[in-house]
Structures are given as structure tokens and as C-alpha cells.
Design goal:
Helix content is 66%, strand content 3%. It is mostly helical. It has two domains: 63 residues, Orthogonal Bundle (Arc Repressor Mutant, subunit A), CATH 1.10.10; 145 residues, GntR ligand-binding domain-like (Four Helix Bundle (Hemerythrin (Met), subunit A), Up-down Bundle). The protein has a two-stranded antiparallel sheet with strand order 1-2. A hairpin with a 3-residue loop joins β1 and β2. α4 packs across α8 and α9 packs antiparallel against α10. The radius of gyration is 19 Å and the shape is globular. The N terminus is likely disordered. It comes from Azospirillum griseum. GO terms for molecular function: DNA binding; DNA-binding transcription factor activity.
Length: 232
């Protein structure tokens, strides 16, 4: 992580503790692959970048380490962690288990307001399909799934899954630019919403299972394309 010459400190929000803000900023950059696996995070540079002392920087890095997003080597360096495929598969198992129940719950209720909320998100996704603005499409994908958790009354489980998803999300980010991938995601989401609207929990679960299987089924291809990004 190379600091620019005389960088201006990033502005932090007043009234919020500094360490959580540093954590949020670095986490988003790691998940977006702006900070790539294996990249060194200099504490001195981070202190200059944020205009902070060592303590909040250390606390933010420790939280990132707890999520498996950085590896801390005492007295040596802190590095963005490689993608751990075992961790990604475990997270996928957790997420699939929860979301199968989420879509079942929504389909059994078949609430028109929920369907309208999800459909509005789908419309925004569709507008992004043929662009190369993958970051914006990714944000819509995340908000689609978060909306389902919230509609099912389990928003805390979304936060739990998110806190475990760093390796899986980076793997999915690497897959997203593949030609046709955004169109496939939009199509999968549309099928899930149709099943929810029709009050068909079995179909909703089937489409959800198919949707979540895509990226991990192509791990070898993705790993061959980005060989330095993965833990041996």
C-alpha cells in the first residue's frame, strides 16, 4: 500500500469512534479488491492517511484479522489475506442454509409490498446489466439479498453472514466481470421474486439454490485466472 506524496488525511465523521471507521473503509477496499490479496498495509502510512495515532489503526487491523481479511505478522508486516477457498465454502454453506429459509418464509407470506420492493431493485439491476459498472451492480445485488433478510424479519442474520463473507465476496467479485454474469444474476433474482410472488416456496428455494451455486462451481477457472490471489 503506497502512500501518495503528502496525502491529505481522509475525513472521518465526528461523533463516531475512529477505529470502526478505519475498519469500514479498509474492509470495503479489500472486498472491492482495491487492496489486493498479498498487499502490505503499512501502519505508518495508514496513520498518515487517516490522520490518526497508532491505537485506532491497530484496533481496526485486529478486527480485520478477526474476519480473516488480513494476516498480521508481529514485528514484520500486515498483509491483505489471500482468498481462502475452504472459508469461502463454509460461508456459502451458512448463507445457503439461511437464505433457503428466508425465501421460503417470503413465499409463504407472498406479501405484495415485499415483492414490489424486490422488483424495484430488479429494475435497477436490469439498467446496469449491459454496463461495466460492476461496483454499482454489486451494490444492488447486496441490497437485493439484504432486503429479503429484512422482509423475513432476520436483519441480524444478514449482518452475521456479511461478517463471515470476506473470502466468498472477493471470489464472487473476481467472477462478476465474466461475460453474461450480471445478466445471469439478474435472471436468477427475477426467478426467485416470481416464485415468492406466486407463493411457491419450493420453486423459490430451487432458484435460490441454483443462484448461489454459480461461482463456487467455477473455482478452478477463476483460480487459474488469478493464481496469486489464493491461499495454497
Amino acid at each position: 500500500m503506497t502512500a501518495e506524496a503528502n496525502p491529505s488525511p481522509l475525513r472521518l465523521e465526528r461523533g463516531r469512534q475512529a477505529a470502526p471507521q478505519v475498519f469500514d473503509h479498509l474492509r470495503e477496499r479489500i472486498l472491492a479488491l482495491d487492496l489486493k490479496p498479498g498487499e502490505v498495509l503499512s501502519r505508518v502510512e495508514l496513520m498518515e492517511q487517516f490522520g490518526l495515532s497508532q491505537t485506532p489503526i491497530r484496533d481496526a487491523l485486529l478486527r480485520l484479522a478477526e474476519e480473516g481479511l488480513v494476516d498480521i505478522f508481529p514485528q514484520h508486516a500486515t498483509m491483505v489475506s489471500p482468498i481462502d477457498l475452504t472459508h469461502a465454502r463454509h460461508t456459502q454453506f451458512l448463507r445457503r442454509s439461511i437464505e433457503l429459509e428466508v425465501v421460503r418464509t417470503l413465499a409463504l407470506a407472498a406479501d405484495a409490498t415485499v415483492v414490489a420492493t424486490l422488483t424495484a431493485n430488479l429494475d435497477r439491476q436490469k439498467a446496469m446489466v449491459n454496463t461495466e459498472d460492476y461496483q454499482s451492480f454489486w451494490a444492488l445485488d447486496q441490497s437485493f439479498h439484504r432486503a429479503m433478510y429484512e422482509a423475513a424479519g432476520v436483519p441480524d442474520l444478514w449482518r452475521l453472514v456479511r461478517s463471515r463473507s470476506g473470502h466468498l465476496e472477493r471470489l464472487r467479485k473476481l467472477h462478476l466481470p465474466t461475460p453474461g454474469k450480471t445478466m445471469r444474476i439478474h435472471s436468477d433474482h427475477s426467478l426467485i421474486v416470481r416464485a415468492i410472488a406466486a407463493g411457491d416456496p419450493d420453486q423459490a428455494q430451487r432458484h435460490l439454490r441454483d443462484h448461489l451455486a454459480g461461482t463456487l462451481g467455477l473455482v478452478d477457472t477463476i483460480r487459474d485466472r488469478y493464481p496469486g490471489y489464493f491461499r495454497d
